[in-house]
Amino acid sequence: MIYNVSVLDPNEDxxxxxxxxxxxxxxxxxxxxxxxxxxxxxDHIRAKYLALLDEETGEIKAALPLCHIKSWIxxxxxxxxxxxxxxxxxxxxxxxxxALLDAAIxxxxxxxxxxxxxxxxxxxxxxxxSRISLQKNYKQHYLTLDEEPQRLMKxxxxxxxxxxxxxxxKSELQVGEAKSEKDLEEFYKLYLKTRRRLLLPPQPYRxxxxxxxxxxxxxxxxxxxxxxxx
Length: 230
Fold this sequence. Notes:
Blueprint: E1 4-8, H1 16-22, H2 32-41, E2 45-53, E3 60-71, E4 75-80, H3 94-110, E5 115-118, H4 149-155, H5 158-170, E6 174-177, H6 181-197, H7 205-215, E7 224-227
Parallel strand pairs: 4-5
Antiparallel strand pairs: 1-2, 2-3, 3-4, 6-7
Helix pairs in contact: 2-7
């Protein structure tokens, strides 16, 4: 089968988000909102989204979102996608991935990139290809919150439930949802202190604020603040 690979701009193409929402691997970092966040936050990041199109209907069949990053620290490269812990290629077969990989390699050469990086979680069975190397030196940490709170609580380690949660409930903590950028600024001050304590570089406030400005109105981001004695 011959595939027609195109470069799409999700911000101008109405087909993109419906395709992402229907695909089993699609999530928030594949949407047009994430592209907007990245390009509004970082001047050295520009998106290049590859898509396989049905020649008869024009429907998007598969896609590989990529970002071109030109950084004096990390080099000139393509990443799918920056600041997204997981970003599976939106494919349903090895043939679809091969066609997108062909286009990605051509784009890499066109932009004189040193390499490209694809972060795979669920689509591993489709991405085996002799032209790319597999690295497994990463760890993913996540919680599956797919049950009612009381049922989830039963799965916690007893030291969490009996000690830490019980102590927090008795300590007069006040927990609430952030509603304004002033709340976001308070969070960022605590975030900076935490990153410094852990000897980790922080993300710039511009990125955090852009996340808030774009995802919060879409009901895709919630910031919870716990206060003690104000």
